[in-house]
Amino acid sequence: MAHAARRLRDTLTEPGLGAAVAAYFDPAEGFAGMSFSTLGRNLPNKVTASDLLAVSLLDIAWRPETVRQLLGSQAQPVSVMLGAIGNDVDLWDAADTDLAAVDRLWDVLVDMPGVGTATATKLLARKRPRLCPITDKVVIRTAGSPGQTWEALRFLLQEPEARAAVDALRPPEAADASLLRILDVAIWVAASPSREAQRCRLAGRGRAA
To answer: Does the predicted TM-score (pTM) go above 0.85?
Structure first.
């Protein structure tokens, strides 16, 4: 865990990262994911159409049958499982029992058509932004610890200095975003080879110039 945490911590020292994160949350730049946390109402114990739309802003396409399950046939069981997950617990303070409650919902989500690690964690991050980190391929590759990425992020953020380093990247436009959301954006900005991430880095350089 220490090695993975060090890799993640090194990512936070990328030159110009703060300006690039600020560009991501700047409405004038138009990055889709800036509205992930704020779009519509986020009911703590219910998955709604607003949640699915918010997740789609992070480059996720829902299969129709999965939408029907989450909003229909599986809505009540998912709500019960959400209710068992603390809504005021931070990842770095979480007990193993907190994460076990997440695992139960995780198992249900990844059993749905087209739902893999990225989709499941993005929905969980929308519903429990303080507890559930996004672990898509960029985060997993950056941590370098497949299968243990949540543990690596938890280990990292148990250090007050690491939490301070993440919070130092927070722009005013993201005042209400969770620390995990700021960290996810920072990792994406620093490490993603995607065209949009490159555009974000370029916008950040423009701010710093």
So the answer is: yes
